[in-house]
């Protein structure tokens, strides 16, 4: 008899510094080396076209830059605003990224719920974001699976679309968002759900909804994963006390979202390594398998090293940790090559 499938190993990723892209090229590269040496699995980043006051960075461009700044770190696009783009060029870009950095790309998808105007200026009716995402994501996944796709839908119509080469290994796909619609979308299409701004209770309920939807409404030929790879993505403050750490992360959140920190405070772990580990452990108990942290602290290098210690302790504390899943080596490049 075979037992239940092993859970995916705990992975931890970071945005190492909110000012990373304003730093000189050599400094960016040095910081990513530090991230890798700290034992962190991947770097992650968001995608925006024109957020709030015009902020943004193109997710695909950023992914390519990060993949070329370091030879082994994973690159996690979390999340990409898919309804603002045509799915065929998106599939093309992902296939090229996978060819440049095989096995290192993760693709998270969202609808852009924080700024309706960002959607409007891209010529998209915000009321259609969910339906557009469903239609686009199905197309992207079929193309990346190697299908020749004929499609006539609400938003896109084409025949004999094909993208080669097919990514090998396949690109893991996640859907982010807090709403039930986003969680159901993850169940229909994705390898897991990527939570944000949610309590542990909400997280547990979301994973139940994902499982129910994946079992009943899977929308693609790829079956639902037996051991889903769910994640959570949060900003964190690091310091010698919760108060000091909140003083680092609070202003950054307010600057980016244009919303008072009080709205985010209960979802934002702040403090020492002990405090951050204590915050995330209940999410691991609920079924979370990867964590993305936007680091905010007084010294970026010290914050990266602290995040590495958080990652080490979460892996050690994880009762479901396994070096293999279904017989395949799932260790990070740094573990498998002895780094």
Explain what this protein looks like in three dimensions.
With 339 residues, the protein is an alpha/beta fold. The chain has a domain at 7-23 and 36-40 and 230-339. 41% of the residues lie in helices and 21% in strands. The chain contains 11 helices and 15 strands. The protein has helices at residues 25-37, 59-69, 87-100, 116-121, 129-144, 180-189, 200-217, 242-257, 273-286, 300-317, 333-336; strands at 11-15, 42-45, 48-51, 55-57, 74-81, 105-110, 149-152, 157-161, 173-176, 192-195, 230-238, 270-271, 288-297, 324-325, 328-329. The longest helix is centred in the middle third of the chain and has 18 residues, at 200-217.
Briefly characterize the structure.
This protein has 339 residues and is an alpha/beta fold. 41% of the residues lie in helices and 21% in strands. The strands form 4 sheets. Strands 1-2-5-6-9-10-11-13 form an 8-stranded parallel β-barrel, surrounded by 8 helices.
Helix fraction, binned, reads 40-55%
Question: Per the principal axes of the C-alpha atoms, what is the gross shape?
Answer: globular
Q: Helical stretch count?
A: 11
Name the helix and strand elements from N-terminus to C-terminus, one letter apiece.
EHEEEHEHEHHEEEHEHEHEHEHEEH
Placed side by side, the strands forming the largest sheet appear as: 1-2-5-6-9-10-11-13
Distance between the termini: 36 Å
Rounded mean pLDDT score: 91
Portion in beta strands? 15-25%
What is the structural class? Answer: alpha/beta
* Rg for CA atoms: 19 Å
Please outline the major beta sheet. 8 strands, parallel, barrel
Task: Name the poorly predicted regions.
Answer: 322-339
**DSSP strand tally:** 15
